[in-house]
Design brief:
The chain is of the alpha/beta class. It has 7 helices and 14 strands.
């Protein structure tokens, strides 16, 4: 390239052309303005201020500094409530104030207080963990309990109200003694009970199952025993035979069978009339069958 060509600004080589284009691009791109007005301004949160006017004299007001508003987040409130619950539970489990020391038992005659408490199983438990209905249902699984009501009192009181099955018959079932209520439910003996009617069976008669609430004998049999005993108060023990039903022994060798159906009062009168007639004829040691009150008969034992 000649000096005159450089002076005239003429570019001949390819390298000179590339450098010329790059210089032109640099000149065309202008720097970005740094005007502070174009900057994005952050919006600042306006702080609330509360002014209270307090009277300090007639026509005089004093302006107090603004009270900042405190914002409690939902997480902080949740943590506070959870901590309070944990502290309350910890105090409950560590303190004896909420543990049942001894349940109060009412309405029991057959069961002792200790027996009823043992059945309920609430002593020594936290009072707010006790379900009254569940305890009542548990008590009614025992044959001695007809119904139960359980009430909870603060801070550690439990009251148990019982309605018991009252025994009416003491049944000797081939050597094993049972008490039975009017509905035919059997349970073990509990001490002594007044005016129990005693029935004795030489062979096992009762149908005892795994469910203690299932009747072991028909209630009609027990009802007949009650009526029969009321009309024969001199008889201490009634007998029961699987074939002939309820019966008695008169003390002079005779046996009388009344069955379990029909009018027991009528049957007793029939027995007394037959016994008087046989005694007048000097007939003893007989068996009188009154199962069917319309067709009574007797048989002389030899």
């Amino acid at each position: 390239m000649t000096l005159s060509e450089r002076a005239l600004g003429r570019i001949r080589t390819r390298a000179d052309q590339v450098r010329a284009r790059r210089a032109k691009l640099v000149r065309e791109i202008e720097p970005v303005s740094k005007d502070p007005l174009l900057k994005r301004h952050r919006r600042k949160r306006t702080r609330r201020r509360y002014d209270f006017a307090l009277p300090t004299g007639i026509g005089v007001e004093a302006r107090l500094p603004a009270i900042p508003t405190v914002h409690l987040g939902s997480r902080l409130l949740t943590i506070f409530l959870l901590s309070s619950v944990i502290l309350a539970l910890g105090r409950a489990f560590s303190s004896n104030d909420f543990y049942v020391e001894q349940a109060k038992v009412l309405g029991n005659k057959l069961l002792s207080n200790d027996q009823a408490r043992s059945m309920a199983q609430v002593d020594g438990n936290l009072v707010f963990l006790i379900d009254p209905q569940q305890v009542a249902d548990q008590l009614m699984q025992f044959p001695e309990v007809l119904s139960a009501q359980v009430d909870i009192g603060w801070p550690n009181q439990v009251e148990i109200q019982l309605v018991e099955r009252e025994p009416i018959v003491e049944w000797d079932d081939a050597g094993r003694a049972w008490w039975m209520s009017a509905d035919g439910v059997a349970f073990i003996q509990h001490g002594s009970w007044p005016d129990l009617i005693k029935v004795k069976a030489e062979e096992s008669i009762l149908h005892v199952s795994k469910d203690p609430l299932v009747p072991v004998i028909k209630p009609e049999v027990l009802s007949a025993a009650v009526t029969l005993s009321a009309h024969l108060p001199e008889i201490e023990i009634l007998n029961y035979d699987s074939e002939y039903g309820l019966g008695i022994e008169d003390g002079i060798g005779s046996k009388i069978y009344f069955g379990v159906e029909g009018d027991m009062a009528v049957k007793v009168r029939m027995y007394q009339q037959i016994a008087e007639r046989l005694s007048a004829q000097n007939i003893h040691r007989v068996k009188i069958f009154l199962m069917d009150q319309d067709h009574p008969f007797y048989r002389v034992e030899r």
